[in-house]
């Protein structure tokens, strides 16, 4: 059967239904699954067919709300919750140990979580919180889960790791490699930190694809502009207005090409399951199709990706080998 051509308007439900046979039997872990977010919608449509969907969050009460809603939306789905604070390396190690103790294999890891932005803030590890949540936490988490992912592979299946990035990576000059270990508040801006974090997603995905040599297939993506919790946060309003997403009164700018929540989650589901991506590991997706030409030059640079990898190994104090 010929597969359809996906586009801006494709929904996550449509993608999941098309690749239902590929989702069946799979165990999928998705970070950042709060209600009214694309991570939740991703979990919801995958849960229709998957063997197990593991949802994560750092707030137990919000995680419970997501789990209850998923079980209501998808009766019979097997949902497991995992406390995961990606801004804390100690918390990441604890969560990874819990996943590695699961009896089930792990087939797909989706890095959807992001920090909500705001003023300059250091984590307990002395890292800028947006970059910690987008890069160093996911780097360590992926490193610790890589053996479990690789073990789930077979001659007919390659495990996948998906990174939800953004076109926002193009709003800045890329990752400031010199100040990652010792971030300076005087050099901080909310939008700048967001742009760097999303650039790091793309660089990590491409370098993981190169280093894993086919053992893990990786993809990064721009989900589109969606009216999620992050857009609605008060401390992000000025930036959202400057970027043209919101009007000065906080309402959505009708001239901006907004997607529905389901359309916004569609590219993630494509990255996780579309069989046409098998020989395109490391690619960047936009509107559900490969669009490497849309990566800013600073985020497509192989030497930058290698340097970010090396710095990340130093910061998390772990060597990532295959």
UniProtKB/TrEMBL annotation:
The keyword Oxidoreductase applies. Signal peptide: none annotated. Keywords: Oxidoreductase. This is Short-chain dehydrogenase/reductase family protein. Belongs to the short-chain dehydrogenases/reductases (SDR) family. Pfam families: adh_short. SUPFAM superfamilies: NAD(P)-binding Rossmann-fold domains. GO terms for molecular function: oxidoreductase activity. InterPro entries: NAD(P)-bd_dom_sf, SDR_fam.
């Amino acid at each position: 059967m010929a597969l359809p051509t996906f586009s801006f308007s494709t929904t996550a439900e449509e993608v999941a239904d098309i690749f239902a046979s590929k989702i069946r039997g799979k165990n999928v872990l998705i970070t950042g699954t709060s209600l009214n977010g694309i991570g939740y919608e991703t979990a919801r449509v995958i849960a229709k067919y998957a063997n197990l969907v593991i949802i994560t969050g750092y707030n137990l009460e919000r995680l419970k709300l997501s789990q209850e809603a998923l079980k209501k939306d998808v009766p019979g789905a097997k949902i497991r919750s995992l406390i995961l604070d990606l801004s804390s390396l100690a918390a990441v190690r604890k969560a990874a140990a819990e996943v590695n103790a699961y009896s089930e294999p792990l087939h797909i890891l989706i890095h959807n979580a992001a920090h909500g932005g705001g003023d300059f803030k250091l984590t307990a590890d002395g890292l800028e919180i947006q970059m910690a949540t987008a890069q160093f936490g996911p780097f360590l988490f992926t490193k610790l889960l890589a053996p479990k992912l690789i073990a789930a592979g077979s001659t007919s299946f390659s495990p996948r790791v998906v990174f939800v990035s953004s076109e926002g990576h193009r709003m800045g000059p890329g990752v400031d490699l010199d100040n990652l270990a010792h971030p300076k508040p005087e050099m901080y801006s909310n939008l700048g930190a967001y742009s760097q974090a999303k650039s790091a997603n793309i660089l990590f995905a491409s370098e993981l694809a190169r280093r894993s040599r086919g053992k893990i297939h990786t993809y990064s993506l721009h989900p589109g502009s969606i009216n999620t919790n992050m857009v609605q946060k008060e401390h992000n309003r000025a930036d959202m207005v400057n970027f043209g997403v919101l009007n000065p009164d906080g309402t959505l700018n009708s001239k901006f090409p907004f997607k529905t929540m389901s359309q916004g989650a569609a590219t993630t589901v494509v990255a996780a399951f579309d069989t046409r991506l098998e020989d395109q590991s490391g690619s960047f997706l936009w509107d559900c199709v490969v669009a490497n030409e849309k990566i800013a030059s600073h985020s497509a640079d192989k030497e930058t990706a290698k340097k970010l990898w090396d710095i990340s190994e130093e910061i998390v104090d772990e060597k990532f080998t295959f």
